[in-house]
Fold this protein.
Amino acid sequence: MTRKSIYLAELIFNLNRFVDENITSRPTEIVHDIPEGCHIAQGITGDYNALSAIYAEPEVLTIFAAKYSKIELDHYDEIINELAADFLNLHNGLFLVNLSETENIESTLTPPVSASNGEPLKAYSDTYVMPVDFKFGTVNFVLSEK
Amino acid sequence: MEISDLKVLICDDSLLARKNLRDGLKGLGCKNIKEVFDGQAAIDVYISERPDVVFLDIVMPVKDGITAAREICEADPDAYIIMVSSVGTQVHLREAIKAGAKDFLQKPTTPEQIKNALEHISGGEE
């Protein structure tokens, strides 16, 4: 299995476990740049280096954050971004535990960022967009490997 | 000391992680809970308020949790630090113990995990 495949398998497992059991992952897309509007990200550094990110329409991200946090949320604001970043951090951490235990690859994380007003995120060489369909809409996960 | 009497410091940049820990601690009767968002703030509050236990995340802005644990333990070798992280790899576990942490909880934490961790400080079952 490639690391991207391990990442996707772990992602589906964690989405089922922490957000919603009714999801469908669509085929992964290979892109050259981090998609526009994608500003919630977290770096993975160490033996394995990558940039991870999450993005969706604000209304979709709001429902995603509410389901993940079990908090009632009815409108999009900065807390939604924080909660989406929190899921990314949790998933990435569990992915790194998996990578450490199964592949003996040791990496760590940088603090998640939500740079909606900052510089656009820069892609590394191999960048994948993994769209996941929920009943309430599509959430996209990005993995850009160094 | 009863768990409910413990003075607790939570340090995590994640609002959800803080909420989960706070809810778990309140469920155990804890009333004296303080929250901060980065490692440097944890050091500052520890030195001024000397909590009985610190729940410390690893990946944080300003100063990471391993560095904060090391600096707190240098200031007070008896500090009781419980690392709480999503990155529960053996390497992070070893680094945390080397820095002086007494326990390590894998996120997401459960109320049972929190209770078990605190029973070590309070001296057994409530």
Notes: Chain A is about 35% helix and 30% strand.
